[in-house]
């Protein structure tokens, strides 16, 4: 299957590299398109505590970024166009995708990608960490921990212009560690490893999963919500350790 990769700054996270490695038997990567101007507008006053939490909890061995190792692929570097919060691929990049006879595009970079008419002809695959029947949007795993969910869903979806609402091509779940956001994130990133391979098989067989995508669309939590989240973590930790102590007695 002829494939193109979308990356940021010609790099990807360790968990993405692992997923790609597992999927390579099903891929013929012909093109790498690398965006050099992906950025997220941060609302510092409202979400300051979350940015601190994310820095501590979501930066780990699996999210560490590494340089993509180019072999024989064509590489096209570009700067995206912005339309509000959406990023758009320039015409010359679409031309490059057309020229390589690509059938599937794997999105490991950029934020919200606008799927224009030129891109509609491709299967654009994207990961989402969250069960879309309950948790769309972001941040990954946060609201599952806050809500006391036992699992975090992980999907590969066919990208559309409706957030986390595309056809689900692969699905799994990872365990929530009720007292540790960091360990929860390690679990759902680890669970992502084999999903791309499964999704590509389903694309080949024109098959998708019957998973609802009608869940609530979450956004970054306020500072007060993060404080409540930390209280929940501490409470769950005390409860967990109390149960262990009681069992030992």
Describe the structure.
The structure is a single chain. By secondary structure, the protein is α/β, with parallel strands linked by helices. Helices cover 34% and strands 27% of the residues. The protein contains seven helices and 14 strands. It has a seven-stranded mixed beta sheet, with helices on both faces. Strands 6-7-9 form a three-stranded mixed beta sheet, with no helix packed on it. Helix 1 packs across helix 6 (195-204). The longest helix has 26 residues, at 223-248. The protein is globular and about 60 Å long. The model has no long low-confidence stretch (mean pLDDT 94).
Topology of this structure?
Layout (H helix, E strand, L loop, with lengths): L1 E7 L2 E3 H10 L4 E8 L8 H14 L7 E3 L6 E5 L2 E3 L2 E3 L2 H9 L4 E4 L4 E2 L9 E7 L5 E3 L4 H6 L3 E8 L9 E8 L5 H10 L4 H10 L11 E3 L4 H26 L1
Parallel strand pairs: 1-3, 1-8, 3-5, 7-9, 8-10, 11-14
Antiparallel strand pairs: 2-4, 6-7, 10-12, 12-13
Helix pairs in contact: 1-6, 2-7
